Amino acid sequence: MPLGLIVSSLGRTMRRKRLSSLDILSSKRAPRDYYKGKNCKPTGFHTRKGGYVIVDEKLPRFVVPDLTDFKLKPYVSQCARDLTASTTSSTTAESTENKS
Questions:
Q1: Where does the secretion signal sit in this chain (predicted)?
Q2: Residues sharing a CB contact under 8 Å with residue 53, sequence separation 6 or more, in sequence order
């Protein structure tokens, strides 16, 4: 038997499968009753008779500041201009001269 065949067969037996895909537990790789969910917090609880009670303390509260006199716009224009290093350094130099 040539040496090349021995080395290639030995290499095939020593090669391992990638285990990175096996680390991800999904509903396809888990038992039948496994439900992964979407990583959201419950807002209540299930009752014994199949109902669902929403708990007010578990609902998310969003604190939004008053932005009536705010100068900036809530979006960025699609045709925004790119600044180069020379223009930013010149504007900072001008602003330091104006302060002096």
A1: none
A2: 44, 45, 47
Instruction: Work out the burial of residue 91: count CB atoms within 10 Å of its CB; fewer than 13 is exposed, 13-18 middle, 19 or more buried.
Output: exposed
With respect to residue 46, please indicate whether it lies within any of the assigned structural domains: yes
Is 54 in a helix, a strand, or coil?
strand
pLDDT digit string (tens) for the chain, length 100 residues: 566 666 666 566 666 555 555 567 777 888 888 887 777 888 999 999 999 999 999 998 999 888 888 888 777 778 877 777 665 555 555 555 555 5
Residue 93 covered by a domain? no
Six token digits for residue 38: 């979407």
Quick check: is 30 in a domain? Answer: yes
The number of domains in the chain is 1
pLDDT at 5: 61
